[in-house]
Amino acid sequence: xxxxxxIIGNGIIGLSSALAALRSGFDVTVLDxxxxxxxxxxxxxxxxxxxxxxxxxxxxxxISQGLRWMRDPxxxxxxxxxxxxxxxxxxxxxxxxxxxxxxAAGSELLKQMxxxxxxxxxxxxxxxxxxxxxxxxxLMLCNSAHGLEExxxxxxxxxxxxxxxxxxxxxxxxxxxxNITMKVQGSVYYQKDCHLNPAQLIGSLRKKIDSLGGxxxxxxxxxxxxxxxxxxxxxxxxxxxxxxxxxxxxxGVWSDGMSKPLGLKIPMxxxxxxxxxxxxxxELPKVCSILVEAxxxxxxxxSALRFGGTMQLGELNESIDPRRLAGILKSIPQYMPxxxxxxxxxxxxxxxxxxxxxxxxxxxxxxxLVRNLVVATGHAMMGVSLxxxxxxxxxxxxxxxxxxxxxxxxxxDRFRE
Length: 417
Ligand SMILES: Cc1cc2nc3c(=O)[nH]c(=O)nc-3n(C[C@H](O)[C@H](O)[C@H](O)COP(=O)(O)OP(=O)(O)OC[C@H]3O[C@@H](n4cnc5c(N)ncnc54)[C@H](O)[C@@H]3O)c2cc1C
Hints:
The protein has 417 residues and is of the alpha/beta class. Helix content is 31%, strand content 24%.
């Protein structure tokens, strides 16, 4: 009889893991507290697959930039200053992770994972897991000479790692996407980056999992573990218990709290972000882009155009800060002058909570504390991009095989004191 695997969390990470586990011969159930995927982070995000994002968020210089942003209420980054021990410890670990050697090791891991996922998305598309994948690349649009200089230096590092990246002047940038009027100094073009429709992706994955015999259990909020001597027998929800042979914890930003009763330490902070989708934009680019100085992502999704941004750390709620939204809206015409803040009147913002680890790397693997648990979480701003390969790695771990990517730096126990 096939081993029973219970996957907790119905986001991109849980679903990718479910697909790979089913294909590896496991009997798979996905459990979530909600029925609808609109209530998780995997739904309204910017849908980018980003080998360009090979540098972990904890990197040299990021703290001083963050402190400067903290003074501006419309800036793309904010941490609510407060005396919270978890947040303080997280901040200290973040600081320690900005060491150059650690960033270099993290970059190698992220590069391998992004490129492997990109490959898998192309295969999924061919296998009928439709997510409107577009492989046209991504433009890092810069509206300042300093921004372009920094992006050009990063492009050089990308090329050294084997990620193609070209620095373009304003004319070359305009020629690459004639569909959109741009006011920029130049850009870096990452041809391996892609974009997709995240809601469609989640829907297609669910259908595929269903067709392969995977089961879904919704409306079950996990509140505890039935564990003895390092072996989990079942999870307890508000309505009952669910037994399995193996458990996969992929509950995004909630994974830290969920794993504490088992003795795990997977520090995580919520990184709140927003997206706004114009159903009928004045112009529709062909290529997705990032407005570099403003840290706003722009994604064509069918005939609509989505703008995503902001990183508000430490707020585990879905309240909306109108000043941050105003910051996003103000920045768009500085790069795309035909767009006006008035175009967004009546557009409902979407809120998502990114699961952010202190070193910007995911947690993937088993823990030394519990034999039959695999953790797959902490993908921060890259869960879509790293999802498919995370699923494959989870399945390899469940099978007891060596993983196809060295996961040393994604170890689940790396922050245990
Ligand atoms: C504005 C914005 C733009 C983004 N753009 C991109 C992008 O372009 N590319 C990219 O790669 N990433 C992007 N991201 C990040 C990406 O969305 C996340 O990394 C990803 O969605 C995380 O997926 P997940 O499966 O780990 O978590 P989630 O999608 O949050 O899923 C976790 C699931 O666990 C369930 N759960 C939690 N607790 C319990 C419990 N106790 N019992 C039962 N179920 C539980 C939840 O209901 C939820 O369904 C963006 C994020 C934001 C906010």
